[in-house]
């Protein structure tokens, strides 16, 4: 009686499952993937997708640096100048919830001489606030108004999206990443003469890449009609997925 030729099968499935799950990136306890019994071949596919959005808000830091011979004078001068800056922030329509003090510092200024101990020559006072501007079209004029009223430090802006719009953009990227992973799995399955049975697990990682902020700089009031030009560009929201598929005949 002729013997039947053995059928080729990927039988060490327990080992394959262990290897497949072992190559997955570490995730938080809430995302840990339980062991799933399977009779097919496991395929781990990584896929990345992006969504781009024009930002609708900006954050920046602004403040006042003053110097005087003694600490009290430096702080008084800083307080007077900073009061004008805060008034300009309110006049620009920035809500109180969008203004937060980020730091108040008083530092002695030293003069160093050879073979001599450092000598205090004065004091520097610094007061900075972080503000959120929700109307980007007014950002340039707001920055100019701050400088005109006494702000001599500005750091930013950094552009961002409202939470609801950001989540919607992430969902768009998620859908695109899933479709990309599914298409790759179908390609692998077809090449191997198999079919995609199901998705065993999905793990997600994401990133938000706003445009780089401007470096910290000292600014002087400018006597000109036009406001500081601002180019918000687009923000890129990226999602990375690791998807484990089960392939079978």
What features would you describe in this structure?
- The strands form two sheets. Strands 3-4-2-5-7 form a five-stranded antiparallel β-sheet. It has a three-stranded antiparallel β-sheet with strand order 1-8-6, with helices on both faces.
- The longest helix has 29 residues, at 163-191.
- With 249 residues, the protein is of the alpha+beta class.
- The protein has helices spanning 13-22, 71-91, 139-148, 163-191, and strands at residues 41-53, 57-68, 99-111, 119-133, 153-160, 195-209, 217-218, 235-248.
- It is elongated, with a radius of gyration of 30 Å.
- Helix 2 (71-91) packs antiparallel against helix 3 (139-148).
In short:
The chain has helices at residues 13-22, 71-91, 139-148, 163-191; strands spanning 41-53, 57-68, 99-111, 119-133, 153-160, 195-209, 217-218, 235-248. The chain is an alpha+beta fold and 249 residues long.
Features:
249 residues; 5-stranded antiparallel β-sheet
Name the poorly predicted regions.
Answer: 1-32, 211-224
What is the ordering of alpha helices and beta strands? HEEHEEHEHEEE
Rg on CA atoms, Å = 30 Å
Structural class: alpha+beta
What percent strand?
Answer: 35-45%
Adjacency order of strands in the biggest sheet = 3-4-2-5-7
- Span of the ends, CA to CA: 29 Å
What spatial form do the alpha-carbon principal axes imply?
A: elongated
Overall pLDDT level: 82
Q: Could you give the count of β-strands?
A: 8
Q: Helical segment tally?
A: 4
Largest sheet: 5 strands, antiparallel
Instruction: Provide the helix percentage.
Output: 25-40%
């Amino acid at each position: 009686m002729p013997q039947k030729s053995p059928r080729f099968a990927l039988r060490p499935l327990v080992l394959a499952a262990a290897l497949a799950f072992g190559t997955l990136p570490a995730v938080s306890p809430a995302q840990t993937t339980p062991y799933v019994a399977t009779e097919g071949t496991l395929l781990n596919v990584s896929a990345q997708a992006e969504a781009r959005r024009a930002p609708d808000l900006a954050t920046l830091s602004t403040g006042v640096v003053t110097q005087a011979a003694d600490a009290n004078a430096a702080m008084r001068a800083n307080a007077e100048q900073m009061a004008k800056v805060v008034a300009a922030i309110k006049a620009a329509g920035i809500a109180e919830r969008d203004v937060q003090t980020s730091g108040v510092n008083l530092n002695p200024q030293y003069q160093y001489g050879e073979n001599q101990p450092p000598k205090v020559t004065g004091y520097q006072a610094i007061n900075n606030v972080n503000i959120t501007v929700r109307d980007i079209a007014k950002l340039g004029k707001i920055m100019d108004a701050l400088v005109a009223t006494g702000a001599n430090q500005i750091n930013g802006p950094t552009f961002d999206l409202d939470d609801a719009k950001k989540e919607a953009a992430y969902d768009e990227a998620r859908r695109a990443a899933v479709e990309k992973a599914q298409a790759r799995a179908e390609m692998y399955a077809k090449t191997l003469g198999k079919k995609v049975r199901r998705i065993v697990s999905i793990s997600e990682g994401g990133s938000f890449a706003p445009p780089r902020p401007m470096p910290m700089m000292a600014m002087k009031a400018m006597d000109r009609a036009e406001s500081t030009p601002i180019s918000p560009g687009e923000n890129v929201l990226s999602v990375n997925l690791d998807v484990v598929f089960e392939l079978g005949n």
